[in-house]
Design brief:
By secondary structure, the chain is α+β, with helices and mostly antiparallel strands. It contains 12 helices and 15 strands. The radius of gyration is 40 Å and the shape is elongated.
């Protein structure tokens, strides 16, 4: 039988649980019974109201009873279901709640921040207002009590000041969430020794528009995790097909997909070491790590695709090489070698390289590219054409390793170069159609861009024949005019219409 406790003000005797709890504590009780405590609180309120009537200046909010509870008696005890029902009924108006909350089975096994976060999520579901974690504060009355504070995500007072980029050209206009002076707060006090109940205080003084959730839902998160081997674009198509997007964007799906993949291949915080570990794990299975000779002042990492070289290596007669930069935070250049087979481009090998301290010897990059090309040559012995841009390192490496292959400017770079030249407003270089005809017999030796060649009639005649490379071409017959011959000629003017 529980020990009876006598009230310090009246003759009431009863078990300790019948006495009101002390405010802010889960296990401390008042010495006065509930009836005496109610009388004392009523007398205190009457006294405060009288003081307010005598003073025309309104008291601060916390002294009006909207903030800290100044009464000795603790708040009432409610079940979690009752709290959720109250919040749901009053979510369209300003509300305030302070109560002991008896937890249900959904909170079983949770404690500390996990428990408070779980309750904050339930409040969000009931009120449509999201509460973000702010801080935790130890209780002044109990060493085992910890208070976790959350603020309304749309609370104007908690809006952080945006940080502008130092470079004005990189500043972007962004849509911001609308904020309100709601003074929305959620405080959850949790006892480390007793997780069966908590003290919950909620304040929200303005009815504003609900919070719009743009985060990735659990269903979408699970979907991304199960389809992590697919491209992000395919996953987005599946999300749209199943109508799971809501406020979701394709960029969010890509970010979560990248994070899932990062956990698989990020083996070290250092990018270079992580890449080496990934290649070592795949060595002999999917890739072959190319042994690049060590060069002073540069760091290199190269690999080739094992299956592509073994299956298509003997069929490849044409390769292309190009480089790019700013592909990684470590500042490494990326060189790629691509082959052609059956009308399709096949990636053969890649190499990363970077200058470390500007002490590299001349030709260090050429030798690195040559070592990669030698590995490709061993598996692709029938290479006859090699396409590059105007990178001298690439051209020198091809001439050294593949002297029998024809090195020429690739189609994309050739078109790009022609467009740049045609866009320039200056005279072209000298052009002799007869010399062009000597190299390529299909070129009309009587044609010149813009003007007719001096001394030559337009058109093709019977005596026009293909000339061998060793044929001596006579000098053009001078014009009877005394004016000097033009050293250059202008290109023809092209007029494009909508049907071209």
């Amino acid at each position: 039988m529980d020990e009876l406790v006598k009230c310090s003000r009246c003759s009431f005797k009863g078990p300790q649980e019948d006495f009101p709890r002390r405010n802010g504590s889960l296990h401390e009780y008042l010495k006065t019974c509930r009836n005496c405590a109610d009388k004392a609180n009523a007398a205190a309120r009457k006294k405060r109201n009288k003081e307010n009537d005598d003073n025309d200046t309104p008291l601060p909010k916390r002294q009006r009873g909207l903030g800290k509870d100044t009464s000795k008696e603790g708040p009432p005890t409610l079940t979690l279901a009752s709290v959720i029902d109250l919040l749901t009924e009053n979510k369209n108006s300003s509300f305030e709640l302070h109560a002991y909350v008896a937890l249900d089975d959904s909170c079983m096994g949770l404690s500390g921040p996990q428990l408070s976060g779980h309750l904050a999520r339930k409040v969000w579901d009931a009120t449509d207002y999201r509460f973000n974690y702010k801080k935790k504060t130890p209780s002044k009355t109990s060493s085992t009590l910890m208070k976790y504070s959350y603020y309304c995500a749309q609370n104007e007072a908690e809006q952080s000041k945006p940080k502008l980029n130092e470079n004005p050209s990189k500043r972007r206009a962004r849509m911001c969430m609308q904020r309100f002076k709601c003074d929305g707060w959620l405080h959850v006090s949790v006892d480390e020794n007793d997780s069966s109940q908590v003290i919950m205080r909620i304040t929200h003084y303005e009815n504003h528009i609900p919070y719009t959730d743009i985060s990735v839902s659990e269903k979408v998160e699970e979907l991304i995790g199960s389809l992590v081997d697919l491209p992000a674009t395919k996953i987005w198509d599946i999300v749209l097909e199943k109508k799971l997007e809501g406020q979701l964007t394709q960029k969010q799906v890509y970010a979560h997909w990248a994070q899932h993949n990062e956990n698989r291949w990020r083996l070290d915080n250092d990018q270079v070491l992580s890449a080496r570990k990934v290649l070592e794990a795949c060595e002999g299975i999917e890739v072959n790590v190319i042994d690049v000779p060590h060069e002073k002042g540069i760091s290199s990492l190269a690999f080739a695709f094992r299956e592509v070289l073994s299956v298509y290596g003997s069929k490849i007669t044409e390769i292309a090489m190009d480089s790019t930069w700013k592909t990684n935070a470590a500042g490494y250049e990326l060189y790629g070698i691509v082959g052609e087979a059956n009308g399709q481009a096949l990636p053969l090998a890649f190499a990363f390289t970077a200058s470390m301290d500007h002490t590299a010897e001349p030709g260090a990059k050429d030798r690195m590219i040559q070592s990669v090309l030698r590995h490709v040559r061993e598996h692709c012995p029938n290479i006859h054409f090699a396409h590059t841009d105007k990178d001298k390192s690439e051209i020198n490496a091809i001439h050294a390793v593949l002297p029998y292959a024809k090195s020429q400017l690739c189609y994309w770079h050739a078109i790009k170069y022609l467009c740049e030249c045609l866009a320039e407003d200056k005279l072209p270089t000298k052009y002799d159609p007869r010399r062009a005809h000597q190299l390529f017999s299909f070129i009309d030796p009587t044609w010149a861009p813009g003007v007719a060649a001096p001394g030559i009639e337009d058109g093709v005649h019977e005596d026009d024949v293909d000339l061998d490379k060793n044929t001596n071409i006579p000098d053009p017959t001078p014009l009877p005019s005394t004016q000097p011959l033009p050293s250059t000629c202008r290109p023809p003017v092209l007029v494009l219409v909508s049907s071209d």
